[in-house]
Amino acid sequence: MTSVAATIPQLESAALSGPPETPWSEFTDAHPTVADAVAAAEAVGGVLSCFAFDDSGEYDRSLLRDGDGWRYEVTLYPRGYLRDVVKVCWLNADDQDQAVEQLRRALAAYVPEGLRRPEIEAVQRASTTSVPRIGWAQSLPVAGLETWEDVRLAEKALPLMDLAPLAEGLGGWCEPPLQETFELFRAHGLAVRACAGCGQAVTDRHPHWPGVLVSVEYEFGPVCDRSRLGGESWRRVGHLLDAAEARPAGRLTGKERKVACLNCGRRVTEQHPAWPGVWSEAGRHNTPVCAAVGSGCGDALEYDLVDCVYPHIPEGFDSPAAAAVAAARDGGYFLLP
């Protein structure tokens, strides 16, 4: 057994090494001054961007050139459950190109009147996947900004930063979207529904879970905690649109066909009464979730992925999620529980 004393030098070494690198710290290390970043932006055609998370939100920070010269732009993106609403609206749309413009208008209207400014725009910015990246942007001239500390102080004063708490949703962090949020997006022609059991935005058009109601966050996916209907059960049950349809999970009879999941090795069946036609664990928890998106894919890809949680894929069977699972395993972000 390793003693506590033996671990102290390792802990001290980790502390002395400082905080881990982030995309933004790597960006500023690569471009030590604002002038260096402008030169790099010039070399690549006029735009240089960095997407990164921090404690206050998800941001693109960009150097770009317009008709008046070089500008520094900050784009703030929806996060948490508000991000889920945006993604579900896009997945539900018959015309996803049109949905991007509808989402842009909805996010503009989402900003409370007292925080709206002519210089803050709802915009679409480049994504690493087919899922659109839509948020709120504000820029300022680069003139007079020399160091990244200058930039930090100028950014902190932007009215855009007052929107950061709202980017999580009007209900706050870890709270499902409020009914008024759903109504606002619907008023802009977007289709979004809330689960009657937990309040999360759900879709039955997720490419990895066709025909199954799923939320697009990175933990539960098709599983509902029924928190609005009297609390959790250790048996996993699905989302529902009408509370009157809520039923207990039911039990296996022992006669169902069971096969091994190719990726997690658990025995699964598509005949569980709670998950008919969906491969779910044949054990105590009967979960249809094999794995989730892990942290190995980087900030930008993690934000842009359509992936939420991955279904079981039995040996010898195909799945619409097979290519995504393979990419997640190769990319190091396939997280088994």
What tags apply to this protein structure?
disordered N terminus; 337 residues; 3-stranded antiparallel β-sheet; single chain; globular; alpha+beta; 15 strands; 5-stranded antiparallel β-sheet
Topology (elements, then pairings):
Elements: H1 4-16, H2 23-30, H3 34-43, E1 47-54, E2 57-66, E3 69-77, H4 80-92, H5 96-110, E4 121-125, E5 133-141, H6 148-156, H7 179-187, E6 193-194, E7 201-202, E8 223-224, E9 237-238, E10 259-260, E11 267-269, E12 280-281, E13 289-293, H8 299-304, E14 309-311, H9 322-331, E15 334-335
Antiparallel strand pairs: 1-2, 2-3, 3-5, 4-5, 6-7, 8-9, 10-11, 11-12, 13-14, 13-15
Helix pairs in contact: 4-5, 5-7
Q: Can you walk through the features of this model?
A:
The protein is of the alpha+beta class. The strands form five sheets. It has a five-stranded antiparallel beta sheet. The protein has helices at residues 4-16, 23-30, 34-43, 80-92, 96-110, 148-156, 179-187, 299-304, 322-331; strands at 47-54, 57-66, 69-77, 121-125, 133-141, 193-194, 201-202, 223-224, 237-238, 259-260, 267-269, 280-281, 289-293, 309-311, 334-335. The protein has nine helices and 15 strands. A hairpin with a 6-residue loop joins strand 6 (193-194) and strand 7. Helix content is 28%, strand content 20%. Mean pLDDT is 91; it is low at 1-18. Helix 4 (80-92) runs antiparallel to helix 5 (96-110) and helix 5 (96-110) packs across helix 7.
